[in-house]
Write a structure and sequence with these properties.
about 500 residues, alpha/beta, 2 domains, 8-stranded mixed β-sheet, 15 helices, 17 strands, about 35% helix, binds ligand BES, binds zinc ion
């Protein structure tokens, strides 16, 4: 992304495209009022003629500018009710501004920061800028460079956010940038075409991204996976010429304990990384199958989270395990009717090769428990179409076997704005995925409660006493339309909420 954001102090002579803030009811912010005065009441005069602009959060009004002056355009940005404004609403407003400015073809703009009743100037400015940057993300890797004779499309290149306290604002913005970088990495991975992102190439991308940040990387290739007895991930990957991989990422940021007795616990994160899900022999219908490039969204969130933890030097030990496989139909593919043996030793009757994510995750879950005995495990997976039916693209269905962990996740969700909704784990579904001829089967007995039977299946691979949560992000990892701070397709969902969880409860 070529957008540059800076935080200058107010200059005596405002010029170019200027954005000023107003609160609900049309009340201008203090800086906006000052500019209005300089421009001899231009803003208030124009605002008076406009009945539509009410100053609601994210509302935008282009006003033009007095003829012949240094200021070429004024945009009004609504922040909503002064007393209601918080960090997340501020980001929403920033995101909507980015969308409007991108559309208008402005190359550079100056935003006059304000303060509100609840937020300091620097907090407001940093979050406005963060929302702006989250929305201004542009995945243009696959666009050919325009010919020299053509004019390149206009793009927003610089945003200056004027603030009385540049140093503090910059510091706050840099803190936010670490989480944003992880989120944008996760989006990039989801948006990358599946002919470029397949298990082997993906493993290398992870290594190139994270190793320089001090994260230890281990890659287990297809031969080793088979040798280890990881029959789940191996079965899913065997139909493709692009062979499966498991990648382990370790961040050791916890300070050494003062007493030897205190052990350094590890936080565990697991991600489904099906780089393309055709359904396999249980082939998916053709229309919209291209969307299944996002079936590695869980792994992308784990990679993005690890990046964020490293960038901000998180004082914890965390391990991320992602299972990477491409689910293809071929003469080598696994079939409905196959019985496979997982790393845990449990056998699974495959009834539908499209229920492949749980097979990949089963081996990852066993591996992380055997190797690290984590303090908790949170897995993320684009696991079921059923969660989309239930919660749409809005909420992530979250299953947790521990109330304390869930409550912490709920708090982190409120803070981050990434919405979670608790879903039930129940013995009935645990039984439902038991097979008559093997230990387990990979689908429920009917289509009912598809997300719950999938979660219950994963539960069979959680050892007694392990605190565990499963996030079904089949809806939230992507969407075809924009949101205020998320342009279309890959959303990077999961990085922000889990980073907040770690920061709030699990750092020393
Ligand atoms: N990757 C899909 C789930 C999915 C569907 C994600 C739609 C995003 C959008 C998963 O592997 C799958 O196909 N699950 C099946 C399970 C069924 C066969 C038991 C599903 O949800 O239909
Ligand atoms: Zn599938
Ligand atoms: Zn899948």
């Amino acid at each position: 992304m070529s957008l540059k954001i800076s935080f200058p102090k107010a200059s005596a002579k405002p010029k170019g495209a200027i954005v000023v803030c107003a609160f609900e009811g049309g009340e201008l912010g203090a800086q906006a009022k000052a500019l209005d005065k300089t421009l001899k009441g231009f803003i208030t005069a124009n605002l008076k003629n406009n009945v539509q602009f009410t100053g609601k959060n994210g509302e935008i009004l282009g006003l033009g500018a007095p003829a012949g002056g240094a200021v070429t355009h004024i945009t009004l940005l609504g922040l909503g009710k002064d007393q209601d404004l918080d960090a997340l609403k501020t980001e929403t407003a920033g995101g909507k501004l980015a969308a409007a400015l991108t559309k208008s073809g402005t190359e550079s703009a100056t935003l006059l920061g304000e303060k509100s009743k609840k937020l300091k100037t620097e907090t407001l400015a940093a979050h406005l800028a963060n929302g702006f940057a989250l929305r201004a993300y542009d995945f243009d890797r696959y666009k050919s460079k325009p010919d020299k004779k053509d004019k390149p499309p206009l793009k927003l290149k610089t945003l200056s956010v004027v603030t009385p306290n540049p140093a503090n604002t910059k510091k706050l913005f840099e803190d936010l940038s670490r989480v944003r970088s992880g989120t944008l990495l996760a989006r990039d991975l989801v948006n990358t075409a599946p002919n470029d992102l397949y298990p082997e190439s993906y493993a290398k991308i992870i290594q190139n991204e994270l190793k320089p940040l001090g994260i230890e990387i281990e890659i287990i290739d297809d031969k080793k996976l088979e040798k280890l007895g990881m029959g789940g991930i191996s079965a899913v990957g065997q139909g493709s010429s692009r062979k499966p991989r498991m990648v382990i990422m370790r961040w050791n940021g916890a300070p050494p304990p003062k007493t030897k007795a205190k052990n350094l616990s590890t936080l565990g994160f697991v991600g489904k990384g099906v780089t393309f899900d055709t359904g396999g022999i249980s082939l998916k219908p053709g229309p919209n199958m291209d969307e299944m490039k996002m079936d590695m969204g869980g792994s992308a969130a784990v990679v993005g989270l690890m990046k964020t933890l490293a960038l901000r030097g998180a004082k914890c030990n965390a391990v991320g395990v992602v299972g990477l496989a491409e689910n293809m139909p071929s003469s080598n593919a696994y079939r409905p009717g196959d019985i496979i043996k997982t790393y845990a030793g449990k056998t699974i009757e495959v009834l539908n090769t499209d229920a492949e994510g749980r097979l990949v995750l089963a081996d990852c879950l066993t591996y992380i428990q055997k190797t690290y005995k984590p303090e908790f495990i949170i897995d993320l997976a684009t696991l079921t179409g059923a969660i989309l039916i239930a919660l749409g693209h809005e909420y992530c269905g979250t299953f947790a076997n521990d109330d304390t962990l869930w409550k912490q996740m709920e708090k982190a969700s409120e803070q981050s704005g990434e919405k979670l909704w608790r879903m039930p784990l129940d013995e009935v579904w645990t039984k439902e995925v038991e097979s008559e001829i093997a230990d387990l089967q990979n689908t429920g007995k009917s289509r009912n409660a598809g997300s719950c039977t999938a979660a219950a299946f994963l539960g069979h691979f959680i050892e007694e006493g392990t605190r565990w949560a499963h996030m079904d992000i089949a809806g939230t990892a992507w969407r075809k339309s924009d949101q205020p701070t998320v342009p279309k397709f890959g959303s990077g969902f999961g990085v922000r909420v889990l980073n907040d969880l770690v920061a709030k409860y699990y750092e020393s």
